[in-house]
């Protein structure tokens, strides 16, 4: 049952990141992530309690370069518990930006609710001049509290923009305008708590997803190999020898790799490892059987997913036995 309180109830789950970072001065580029508690972050946002009845939990406190799959699994299961209880109308997750798109996509596949799940963070630490974290958190709570957010999957709210988990990617190392959704565009905007939606995600997500991490403690290992000129083919062997059940190739152009690596990857696929061709190029889709004969070589293509998200999907998919054809369909569906 939905909350009976007049105001919606929003739980903020904090995991650290730049939004909780501090520096010795307000103008230096260097800082330490994960220094401010969730209580401190909430207290720094004037008017946030007018949007919703807000509470917080400190689930982790690390820079997002140190986010693990154990943390992701704990986060997904905690969100499912909160949203299934009937006491919480929406969840906001504060998170570092380096791997935010990976955690967002993971939650997009593993949360089992129509209720809002909104991630946010910051590009400037809490102590910086013009810190962007407080307004990002304000807008994220506004999005999580809005009834019209329901059923849109995991979202990311940064810099007045609402992104869907499927498409967004970090595009700049330091700019507050780092996140873009270059393939499918924005879901909407959130400007000082005023929300405007343009569209809904068209891929399967959250309550429509077949994936679950309930009872899961470990995910299968999947590695990403970055293709480049004269790429060493033995990198494929190295990954498999270390226990990788799948390999995502961040390929040149349309998911390409040199002939030697194609041959080695095909031999590896024959032995049972899953080879997914993605691309190191920021935009565009990877097409099947274009320059590489995927059918005969036993490869899968990532379609719109970048290498990091293609890895997330494969790791979850490998929790069950699936044919190559069914794995390929997952990349078209999610």
Identify the CATH architecture of the largest domain: 3-Layer(aba) Sandwich
The CATH class label of the largest domain is: Alpha Beta
From the spread of the alpha carbons, the general shape counts as globular
The class by helix and strand makeup works out as: alpha/beta
Which residues sit in consecutive blocks of at least 5 with pLDDT less than 50? none
Strand content: 15-25%
- Order of strands across the widest beta sheet? 2-1-3-4-5-6-9-10
Query: Fraction of residues in helices?
Result: 25-40%
Terminal CA distance reads 29 Å
Number of helices: 10
CATH topology of the largest domain: Rossmann fold
Q: What is the CATH superfamily label of the largest domain?
A: L-asparaginase, N-terminal domain
Key terms for this structure?
single chain, alpha/beta, Rossmann fold, 2 domains, 28% helix, globular
Q: What is the fold's blueprint, element by element?
A:
Elements (H helix, E strand, L loop, with lengths): L8 E8 L21 H6 L4 H4 L1 E10 L6 H16 L5 E5 L5 H11 L6 E4 L12 H13 L8 E5 L2 E4 L4 E2 L8 E2 L7 E4 L2 E4 L24 E5 L7 H8 L4 E6 L7 H12 L3 E6 L14 H4 L1 E3 L5 H11 L6 H10 L1
Parallel strand pairs: 1-2, 1-3, 3-4, 4-5, 11-12, 12-13, 13-14
Antiparallel strand pairs: 5-6, 6-9, 7-8, 9-10
Helix pairs in contact: 3-4, 4-9, 6-7
